[in-house]
Write a structure and sequence with these properties.
Length: about 270
């Protein structure tokens, strides 16, 4: 299958006034690492870097994120939400996941939902189609990295994991169009959240996220740093964006970090 390169001229024209600048490179190690370095050098708010191939990209919990060239969208956005108090910045990756979900629902008819905190699950199997990694990039600066499988064929998907792509689920999209729609949605949602000083209730972010998150109400296993795991039922997302779980005793507690596995039933 012939997959054309992203049209950077079209991207710049369509996103004029939306982003402060956008660059597309053929290959790099990590767009997040590159933008973090650019942030330290003074890159402006809403700078975007896209790579046709990322060869040392990282996902959450240090996992590697790889994709064949010119089939997915691998990009990072530098944000400087200085109006948002530090204790509310934890909502930014959840907001970005919701923006991604909204864009996919707008442009396709595939079943799509979020797994806490921001994995995009699509198709009847609820397979992972995208992931997001947010990293601090200096005082008042955050880099959001998104990896989305767009036109990856079934045989190109990684083995041994429940992964898919929009194309594999029947959605045939042009990557340039998708990236424009996604950045417009993400930056509009982030601007509204920023104007509300990051208050997730004031902009309806918490309510909308809860409605979109397939994890809430599901039996889950939480695999946490250090090798411990907990089986429980996910019942909510609190005001700080943490997943609230209920254990077998009926006690509830928030979880701030960990890898969530959806279970069919609690053993």
């Amino acid at each position: 299958m012939n997959n054309p390169a992203l049209d950077v001229t079209e991207l710049r024209a369509a996103l004029d006034g939306v982003v402060s600048g956008i660059e597309v490179v053929e290959a790099t190690g990590s767009t997040n690492a590159d933008l973090t370095a650019a942030s330290a050098a003074g890159a402006p708010d809403r700078t975007v870097l896209v790579a046709e191939l990322q060869n040392t990209g990282r996902g959450r919990l240090g996992r590697q994120w790889t994709s064949p060239p010119r089939v997915g969208l691998t990009f990072s956005v530098l944000l400087r939400p200085t109006e948002v108090p530090p204790h509310r910045l934890g909502w930014l990756p959840l907001l970005a996941g919701l923006s991604l979900l909204r864009t996919v629902r707008q442009l396709t008819s595939v079943d799509a939902a979020l797994k806490w905190p921001n994995d995009l699950l699509v198709g009847p199997r609820g397979a992972k189609c995208a992931g997001l990694l947010a990293e601090v990039a200096g005082p008042g600066a955050v880099v959001l990295g998104i990896g989305l499988n767009v036109r990856t064929r079934a045989e190109e998907l990684p083995e041994g994991v429940n992964a898919t792509s929009l194309l594999a689920e029947g959605a045939d999209l042009r990557r340039t169009d998708l990236l424009v729609a996604l950045l417009r949605r993400l930056l509009a949602d982030e601007a509204a959240w920023r104007a509300a000083a990051g208050d997730p209730e004031a902009v309806g972010l918490r309510e909308d996220y809860r409605a979109a998150c397939a994890t809430i109400g599901s039996p889950v296993r939480i695999e946490q740093p250090g090798g411990t795991s907990t089986v429980a039922t996910a019942v909510d997302v609190d005001t700080d964006g943490r997943l609230v779980i209920r254990d077998a005793t009926g006690a509830t507690r928030p979880v701030a970090a960990g890898d969530v596995v959806h279970l069919r039933a609690i053993p």
